Amino acid sequence: MQEILKLDRVSKAYGSLTVTDDLSLSLGAGEALGVIGPNGAGKSTMFNIIAGGVRPDKGQVYYRGTDVTGAKAARRCRMGIGRSYQIPHPFAGMTVYENLLVGAAFGDDMPRGEGFAHAAHVLEQTGLIDKANVRAGTLTLLERKRLEMARALATRPKLLLLDEIAGGLTEHECNDLVATIKAIHASGVSIIWIEHIVHALLEVVDRLIVINFGAKIAEGDPHEVMNSAEVRQIYMGLEADG
Question: What is the rounded CA–CA span in Å between residue 85 and residue 172?
Answer without folding.
Answer: 21
